[in-house]
Amino acid sequence: MVIPTLHPIYAVASIGLLSVIADLLRRVVPFYRRELQVEAATRLTPLDGLRGLLCFGVMYHHAAITHAFLLTGRWEETPSNFYELLGQTSVALFFCITGFLFWGRALSRQGE
After folding, report:
1. How many helices (H) and strands (E) does the chain have?
2. CA 44/CA 98 separation, integer angstroms
3. Rounded distance, CA 66 to CA 87, Å?
4. 23-26: Cβ within 8 A, 24+ apart
5. Which of 69, 51, 60 has its CA nearest to residue 7?
6. What Cα–Cα distance (Å) separates residue 35 from each residue in 20, 32, 68?
7. What's the whole-number mean pLDDT along residues 87-104?
């Protein structure tokens, strides 16, 4: 049985749309504006944002696997190379960035 795969444009377009919505919320809602100003002084906000985008990549990878499972009844890798690469790359980069952020925090506390 040939499994119809999800077109990559779905993931790319929805991640873009979610990014635009998040940016609008950041600009319009006073709570988010205030929290992001406080956070900017203590965190590397662009890296945190990238981690959020990578989480979406993992979510879409899992969605593609679930889509294939619902069609075939078999839980296995997605037939789409795009979604397979999206998941694996997102996980690897997410853990690299997280390690960098935690290591920087550990160094700044000087063993405390």
Report:
1. 4, 0
2. 11
3. 13
4. none
5. 60
6. 18, 5, 40
7. 90
pTM summary value? 0.74
Report the phi/psi class of residue 110: left, alpha or beta, with left for phi > 0 and alpha for psi in -120 to 50.
left
Cα–Cα distance measured from residue 78 to residue 85, given in angstroms and rounded to the nearest whole number: 10
Q: Which amino acid is at 80?
A: S
Q: Is the pLDDT of residue 47 over 70?
A: yes
Lookup: tokens for 10: 């779905």
Do you know the residue count of the chain? Answer: 112
Q: Which two tokens stand for residue 101?
A: 């952020």
Q: Is 73 left (phi over 0), alpha (psi -120 to 50) or beta?
A: left
Give the three-state DSSP class for 84.
helix
Query: 103: burial class by Cβ within 10 Å (0-12, 13-18, 19+)?
Result: exposed
